[in-house]
Amino acid sequence: MNIILFGPPGAGKGTQGDKIVSSFNLFKLSTGDLLREEVKKKNELGLEIKALIDKGKLVPDEIIYNLIIKILSNKKFYNRIIFDGYPRNLNQAKNLDILIEKYKQKLSCVLSLKVDKEILIKRILGRQTCTKCGLIFNKFFYPATENNHSCDPRYLEIRPDDNNDTIASRYETYLKETAPILDFYQKQNLLHEINGTAEIDQIFNEIQGILASLEA
Ligand code: AP5
Ligand code: MG
Questions:
Q1: What's the gap between Cα 4 and its chain centre?
Q2: Of 19, 78, 164, 194, which has the fewest beta carbons less than 10 angstroms from its beta carbon?
Q3: How far is the CA of 26 from the centre of ligand 2 (A)?
Q4: What are 185-206's pLDDT values in tens digits?
């Protein structure tokens, strides 16, 4: 099955995506993570991407398409992709439908995590990501400890776009460009709304229930 993890910045897409990967035999495709890898290359494309991410704006669809197509066309990931942070506007959503059909795959569901703005801001400002293993923690809600993280704490970093100004702009972009595609998936009967303010494990239990019912 291919699934979409949908939600505003800080909703928990990456957190739940990692948990799904370890319990189901799926592969997480985070366009945000792929873009941050491009930024690290410090070439012309990387600089263009960085400028947009720092402003909280969407990166052009064509750049995203080039990242997505490599994975969707790869037999290794056939029908086992978790899309995290993609699609992000109506054009990307329509394009994904075309690609899914072209590569004879199936979109099984869209899991939409609903969280209020005030909580999102606090979550984003507390986020720490491990640059070595990629795991996501939070200094307020889910601190890295010896029990849940095996890398040295010096690898924990704050994302450059996790500051008050960029958060405000990312949220505006979400409302204007991304939230409207919920209607697109509602009409296809693929949408599952989830209370994203619950505990991490509670949300994951709900997701497991939904995915199990799709597999049955
Ligand atoms: P991206 O990396 O996708 O960022 P985002 O959508 O803003 O989402 P985040 O990664 O901030 O949040 P998340 O939902 O993954 O939450 P997380 O699990 O980390 O995109 C970054 C940028 O790249 C965009 O702004 C755009 O410029 C560009 N971009 C990306 N994709 C694009 C596309 N398709 N098209 C065009 N441009 C694109 O959790 C957040 C924090 O909360 C963590 O600290 C976590 O520990 C904590 N937490 C999680 N769940 C809970 C919980 N239930 N209770 C308490 N704390 C929790
Ligand atoms: Mg994320």
A1: 8
A2: 164
A3: 17
A4: 999 999 999 999 999 999 999 9
C-alpha 161/C-alpha 167 separation (Å) is 7
- Residue 153 token pair: 């704490």
CA nearest neighbour of 45 among 66, 14, 20, 74: 66
Check if the beta carbon of residue 67 is closer than 8 Å to that of residue 61.
no
Annotated catalytic residue, options 117, 122, 132, 159: 159
CB-based contact 13:7 (threshold 8 Å): yes
Query: 174: CA distance to ligand 2 center in Å?
Result: 13
Asked if 85 and 10 count as a contact pair (C-beta separation under 8 A), the reply is: no
Element (H, E) at 30: strand 27-30
User: Where in 105-190 does DSSP place strands (E)?
Assistant: 107-114, 127-130, 136-138, 156-157
- Each residue of 14-46: pLDDT tens digit? 999 999 998 998 999 999 999 999 999 999 999
Q: Which of 96, 97, 84 is nearest to 14 (CA)?
A: 84
CA-CA distance, 214 to 110, in Å (whole number)?
12
| Pairing outcome for strands 107-114 and 191-195 | parallel
User: Which of the following is catalytic: 13, 28, 36, 50?
Assistant: 13
Question: What are 76-127's pLDDT values in tens digits?
Answer: 999 999 999 999 999 999 999 999 999 999 999 999 999 999 999 999 999 9
Type of residue at 108: S
- Both tokens assigned to 25: 């035999």
